Amino acid sequence: MCGIVGYYGPKDPKDVIVGGLKRLEYRGYDSAGVAILDGPKNDQHFKVVRAEGKLGELAKKLETVSFTGHLGIGHTRWATHGVPSERNAHPHTVDGVSLVHNGIIENYQDIKADLAREGAVFSSDTDSELVAHLLARKVKETGDLFKAVELVLPMLTGAYSILAVWEKQPDVMVAFKNGPPLIVGVGEKRW
Ligand code: GLU
């Protein structure tokens, strides 16, 4: 049970996301992180900042970090797969696809074995990272994050709410869920 937040719009995503995570902090407190687009307008990548411990540790790290982009996601973690650590903190990013996940992917062992056979290199012990690998493969095929999610959904068993973003589509965020709650807000006079 964790907290996930995403933002796309004219405000500074760092402020909106950290503000949202503060309200969700009771849902997860062993680590936290954000991935927010950064870089020159036509060549933006996700800058990922993560910290073990309470949200205050992440907020401290973020004091000296700025972002030029307007799309980002954040997470406070309550570990189910892999110890609490910076390495296992979300967001998990693979080839420009970044995601935050609340819940459990029950068939993660089968997915991990298949990905390992295909040569995937893992940078965490979480079930969540595996979904980032699957999406990264599918965006290469389809060139579209929404289509990639449609292809990955049937591969997943479990309870989850996930926010996914891809650096090649800087105005797209895809949210998908099976079970845990997820609220989408659209502000007036926002993008
Ligand atoms: N299963 C994921 C993990 O262990 C997400 C846990 C959560 O909902 O915070 O990283």
Number of helices: 5
The CATH architecture is 4-Layer Sandwich
Q: Write out the strand line-up for the largest beta sheet, numbering strands in chain order.
A: 1-4-2-3
What is the overall pLDDT average?
95
Please count the beta strands (DSSP E, at least 2 residues each).
8
Distance between the termini: 30 Å
CATH superfamily: Aminohydrolase, N-terminal nucleophile (Ntn) domain
Helix content: 25-40%
Bound molecules: glutamic acid
Radius of gyration: 15 Å
Main beta-sheet strand count, sense and barrel state: 4 strands, antiparallel
> Would you give the CATH topology?
Glutamine Phosphoribosylpyrophosphate, subunit 1, domain 1
What general outline do the C-alpha atoms trace? Answer: globular
Number of domains: 1
Uncertain stretches:
none
**Percent of sequence in beta strands:** 25-35%
In N-to-C order, the SSE pattern is EHEEHEEEHHHEE
The assigned structural class equals alpha+beta
The CATH class name reads Alpha Beta
Structure write-up:
The longest helix has 15 residues, at 128-142. The chain has one domain: 4-Layer Sandwich (Glutamine Phosphoribosylpyrophosphate, subunit 1, domain 1), CATH 3.60.20.10. With 191 residues, it is of the alpha+beta class. Helices cover 28% and strands 29% of the residues. It is built from 5 helices and 8 strands, in the order E-H-E-E-H-E-E-E-H-H-H-E-E. It is globular and about 40 Å long. The chain has helices at 13-24, 55-62, 108-117, 128-142, 145-152; strands at residues 3-8, 31-38, 45-52, 71-77, 92-94, 97-105, 158-166, 173-178. The strands form 2 sheets. Strands 1-4-2-3 form a 4-stranded antiparallel sheet, with helices on one face. Strands 5-6-7-8 form a 4-stranded antiparallel sheet. It binds glutamic acid (GLU). Glutamic acid binds at residues 1-2, 28, 77-82, 88, 101-104, 126-128.
